[in-house]
Amino acid sequence: xxxxxxxxxxxxxxxxxxxxxxxxxxxxxxxxxxxxxxxxxxxxxxxxxxxxxxxxxxxxxxxxxxxxxxxxxxxxxxxxxxxxxxxxxxxxxxxxxxxxxxxxxxxxxxxxxxxxxxxxxxxxxxxxxxxxxxxxxxxxxxxxxxxxxxxxxxxxxxxxxxxxxxxxxxxxxxxxxxxxxxxxxxxxxxxxxxxxxxxxxxxxxxxxxxxxxxxxxxxxxxxxxxxxxxxxxxxxxxxxxxxxxxxxxxxxxxxxxxxxxxxxxxxxxxxxxxxxxxxxxxxxxxxxxxxxxxxxxx
Length: 298
Prior knowledge:
Blueprint: H1 2-21, H2 24-31, H3 35-60, H4 70-93, H5 96-103, H6 106-117, H7 124-144, H8 150-173, H9 180-183, H10 186-199, H11 206-226, H12 233-255, H13 261-295
């Protein structure tokens, strides 16, 4: 009964995180400002919120996780810091559909890095899924050649790679990186502050991006990070797909930005592949658990 309750709790927590994350890009767009100003406000408010949460947690409990656990934590923080820079840059240089579809490619990068550095060879089904996703991304990026969006698509790919590197390092270290992704914004914050000091502060509606950094980012990252404590990795991955599916819908409703044909084709390939692969992993996991229960009955 307890196991069933924990599983339901995990599904609820992760769903909240995934749904919350879907409004990140629309809020960035609603703020209507320069890229460096947006990055400065987003990272500053995220860092302040993270430090307040950590300080309260530490005051109430001695089990509060460290902000940056050792050298591996520093490397993960740098990766998330780079992600903040490339992500915001991509928002201003490509469509929302292209951005979120390409970000879903981080699962391929993570599998490749785990194969190379952690000696976790992907199974045949995973390799087939990776090839299908590569085709999907090539369709999207190929459609951007000559349209002025190629740079933004490449920035989205850099974001996906940086996230995958952070995940790989976290898995290899086995340390609690709960606050690291939030504290890592201190690196892009410093760069953004330098750029804003030179070019000036440009934002029409700063309250949108302040709300994004102070509320949306901490909730989404904390919930998605807590999910794996209660449910399996494939189930958590399914909730990350909510941003891939819903963010373009919100942007289409608010800004009337319709995805291109290549974005829809490539995005459909990515989403169908990810969903099919996640369901396959869940099925395989249940089979293994059932086999283990038979061979080692309680």
